[in-house]
Amino acid sequence: MRHKTTVGEVDANVLAYTAGQDRVLDLALVEADCFGTAAHVTMLSRMPLQPPPLSPAEARAVIAELRQIMVDAAAGRFVITLEDQDVHLAVERRLTEKLGARGKRVHVCRSRNDQVAVDLRLFAKDRLLTTMRAAATLALTLHTFARRQARTPMVGRTHMQPAMPSSVGLWASAWAESLLDDLALLRAAYDLNNQCPLGSAASYGVPMPIDRHLVSNLLGFARPVANVLHANQARGKLEAIILSALSQAMLTLSRLAQDLILFSMPEFAYFRLPSEFTTGSSIMPQKRNPDVLELLRAKAAKVQTYANLAAEIVRAAPSGYNRDLQEAKAPFMEGFELTIASLQIMSPLIQGLTVDAAALRRGFSPDVFATDRALELVAKGMPFRDAYNEVKNNLQQLAGHSPDAALAAKQHYGAPAGLDFAATARRIKDAASWATRETKRLQACRDRLFTKNTKK
């Protein structure tokens, strides 16, 4: 049995196999595809040809219908059929059904290859900004928690064994700073993604005077991808780069989750997880399990795997477009959803965290002060190795040291009593403000393109 599609008749089994998950996944790309198509037809209407491929009036009619498609998609009324194969042909089918010949003209100078490339970059811009806002929110939550617990003593550990005096403030602000590093990586990924591939067509350009800079500006990109071949074959690698940046944020969250699981165990009891973020047992009435944190560890592993998978998909691909790329779409999309959900759920969990100061103080055995005592001897003139051995041979003399005094003595930059909370707060605010401004700028681009071009 063969199915008739926009691009020819295809065997039913082949059509189902090659369409894959696109009918479902591409529903998340409807707005991006309509946005890209609106910019494309606007450019076609301004092409220096007589007549242009689309007149300004025809372009306005197309854009008005694209706007309706977005409304229908948001309401669940837009369907991508098996014969459509993907969002691009579904949108073109709808335009042709509603607008006749005008709908048939929208694909001139364009390939599905550069359509999906621009759709995924627009999708990624939106999701990266959402991710960055969520990461900044969590960083601020951790920062606020750290300031509140700045002087609460906590045993610092190496190899999971008691090591040196530390504080809850140092512990929490370390995770906030880790997220700031992750935000820098996400911003770098955003900048790489912020280039418009449209106009590449099938990777080799077209023999017509298209204006790629105009399309790029209309869509809110920083610039077009310069080389049309690279514009298409950057796919896969770009997804791997973005997923890798997402995986670093998830790595931070996974390690934080592990600490919270350990330090909320009865054997430590440093923290108590908010009850609404724990779950019960089907057989043990007393249990409250840290399922959220355990699942987060598993989700972090998935995002890291997705980054590796995207890279592996294109590792041996030759130049030009290859259909292998289709298989990178699902992990790319899910990587975003897992990361955003994980960042968002951790913020209220940290806000609801209870600190048991007494349990934290009970964790201070005398030997925790050994290094501090050795450095006290060094400050009095003793060579460090002699001080080291003196303390090591007399650990029984360390009783009576105060965790509070130990923290107060560590005043250098970045130490428990030298944390620059104001500087960290500024960095978090700057990251959040940039993501908010960029989100508003992109929304303004969408509004201008659809509002201006649909006026009669």
Number of strands: 8
CATH superfamily of the largest domain: Fumarase/aspartase (Central domain)
Which strand order does the major sheet show?
A: 1-2
How helical, in percent, are the residues?
Answer: 55-70%
- N-end to C-end Cα span: 46 Å
CATH topology-level name of the largest domain? Fumarase C, Chain A, domain 2
Just name the CATH architecture of the largest domain. Up-down Bundle
* Percentage beta strand: 5-15%
Name of the CATH class of the largest domain: Mainly Alpha
Q: Choose one word for the global shape.
A: elongated
Give the mean pLDDT.
94
Order of helices and strands: EEHHHHHHHEEHEHEHHEHHEHHHHH
Structural class call reads mainly alpha
Largest sheet: 2 strands, antiparallel
What number of structural domains do the residues give?
3
Radius of gyration: 28 Å
Tally of alpha and pi helices = 18
